């Protein structure tokens, strides 16, 4: 069988503009070769900066931003896409090769109906009449498991959920009957329970239409469910390329092994969890406008232990952080620390009360002033809480930098010069600088690559041991909960579903929601998706 | 805590949840009315607080205490401020702004003529400026960061940086004094033909265009660049759509709201803010009428002009806001 897609000697470069220096050419992708047969799925996997999205877009002869494809061939059915004229490549895009992006919410035009956008390319390329395309779109909505497929297309993007948008974008890609679809992290932005549905829908649709696909993700467990082959990328180069079974079960390279074995942290659950060192009792909270987001939530964590709050978007877990810090005073209930009830609002709290309770955010990027040096960012709380200045402050900043395992060279650097993991470390040092007793961590690792996230988690655990810190760790990731928690709280739609020691919360018997949540977390083995879907069908049939 | 309040607001909240579009527009209309009322109070109060007195200015040397008192009672100035305000507002709402103290003529009639002239000037300035600004904005986006973009930016910035009276005198110096290619002063009469009128207003129109162009052009440019960098424009490109279709079908509907806003703001300026230009070019519009009235303390005229200017300004901004609300699919099609 001839290859549908043949990529050979691909080289992709970009021009970068470092501040204060001359523009530089950097190579993003080099010497990448692969082939793809009709109806097969190749998974491209790697961390951010590995060039996987860039390779995916190269299949549409497209370079994002200042990215340019400067060498090699991208042959679709023997025709080199890179040699095509502008109008030639336009005929390929949206007709023979389609693209599904990570954020369907941003990729759909808010001003037009979904149905019109789904069929637009197909109709504009003259592949089908408007009526035929509509019928096909309705059929695809049905195949992808969207609600009311006949009328779904009449809705606007803001009228449907994120998971539905992601499926609608898949329908948009499938509509023209393309030879190849590029899926660029299509489930990364979704909740796990939604991800599994979208994943199943995509897999089903690919099988049904016999389309070939490039599936890009950073999550090896996800790609294991959907691909035939896997290509592991690092810094724009191929690390390993083989069948799914070989890569997952018998990786040849160290880097692949590290990816497979990520989340190797083990943390022994502490036995005595009776102390109510930090406590939130009977919390009700509502945002202005009267929407109630928390009702009667009670939690506590002992000194030196970690409480993980787990839940999906909209479960109210981040609101817990806002209530704890006083950013959102609760409408009922109280927050106490070390036996002392804290005033509900941030403004009423004393400086010492503020000092004891610190917060680490999900996006270290937006939580730091880009115009301040690392030294100033970490030094500011030292001056604010302890009145340190000059060389005393500098010395203390250096101690903190050592604690987060960053050298002295960082004192005068700006956040923009740091990597994602380094930024989060600086954010941790800033929280430590205050000398806290409790740190609230709001998804501090969810924007990071798995290996980098592991490093951050290890650091947090080490610091906990040294300083006897209590953590309230907010996350959507069950794997992280397993790795670091002593006690676990499961939240769903503003209510506490389950709370207790990790070993109890994560073992049967489960309530329905916790069961669904735990079963939806992709596991790094072949056939996991099929098993879950089969067990779901059985339980649905049993009802 | 606030039970009676919450129940009385519950109905409103239900209404706004069911009809977000209608409730937003209604809210905007009410706000405009409230604003207009507040402005009327401020105009009346502000003019009341001005130093100087019409009666003594009018009588000059013959301002005996008796004569002053007589005139004050003729004009109703001896009544309380609240009575006079209510009378004035009641009249204004029916279109009766009273009679000018200086000429004794009906203020409404005079203003009608002057407002017509002002609108005439603003209309032609807008007809030139709006398409030119949007066109230049598009051009600047098309050649972003290249020479045409930079040239357009620098020249329009230079134009907006110069005070309007300076631009006016500069144009007079070049086109009237040096080359004799244009007419000055720009005074128009009832007896003039349309062509003569157009000929007369070339220079004030040019001045106004130069003043408002940059703002609209830059906003158009920024709005379109903002939209062009969004993910759905990439989607359009990856669907293989042509550049023109992508811009018209996918970019334009989303860039509309900010452009409408800045256009309305500038239209309002063209009508309300032209006082200086009218004076420079001796053009018989509202602005000059108002300036003349201020010098002789002809209060009914000043008040009427102020109120009409405010009404036009508020009205145009309200229209822009309502159009922007209508352009938002989230409000047109609630969940």
Automatic annotation (TrEMBL), chain A:
It is found in: Cell inner membrane. One of its GO terms (cellular component) is plasma membrane. One of its GO terms (biological process) is peptide transport. The lineage of its organism: Bacteria, Pseudomonadati, Pseudomonadota, Alphaproteobacteria, Hyphomicrobiales. This is ABC transporter ATP-binding protein. It is a peripheral membrane protein. The keyword Nucleotide-binding applies. Keywords: ATP-binding, Nucleotide-binding, Transport.
From TrEMBL, chain B:
It holds the Pfam family BPD_transp_1. GO terms for cellular component: plasma membrane. InterPro entries: BPD_transp_1_N (IPR045621), MetI-like (IPR000515), MetI-like_sf (IPR035906). The chain crosses the membrane at residues 29-47, 119-139, 151-178, 198-216, 255-281, 301-327. It is found in: Cell membrane. The keyword NAD does not apply. Its main location: membrane. It is a multi-pass membrane protein. Residues 115-320 form the ABC transmembrane type-1 domain. GO terms for biological process: transmembrane transport. Keywords: Cell membrane, Membrane, Transmembrane, Transmembrane helix, Transport. Gene3D superfamilies: MetI-like. Belongs to the binding-protein-dependent transport system permease family. PANTHER family: DIPEPTIDE TRANSPORT SYSTEM PERMEASE PROTEIN DPPB-RELATED (PTHR43163), PEPTIDE ABC TRANSPORTER PERMEASE PROTEIN (PTHR43163:SF3). This is ABC transporter permease. It comes from Roseibium limicola.
